[in-house]
Input
Amino acid sequence: MHFSVPHPVRHATQPVTSPRSTLLYHEAVYGSQVAADILEQQFAQAHYRLVVSGIVPPPQ
Output
């Protein structure tokens, strides 16, 4: 069974409903290991922004 997957660049402009759907999307496009890496990277970037803005204390 063949199904088309939307292009990653176009997907980036669409709102993300949940981390899980993002993970499933990345798994479909890139494979599970790359998906995990992408998600980890996104989390690290988001966490860094929270630390910089003073919302979250920096890790000890």
Q: What stands out?
A: The longest helix spans residues 32-52. The two ends are 49 Å apart (CA to CA). The chain has a mean pLDDT of 73.
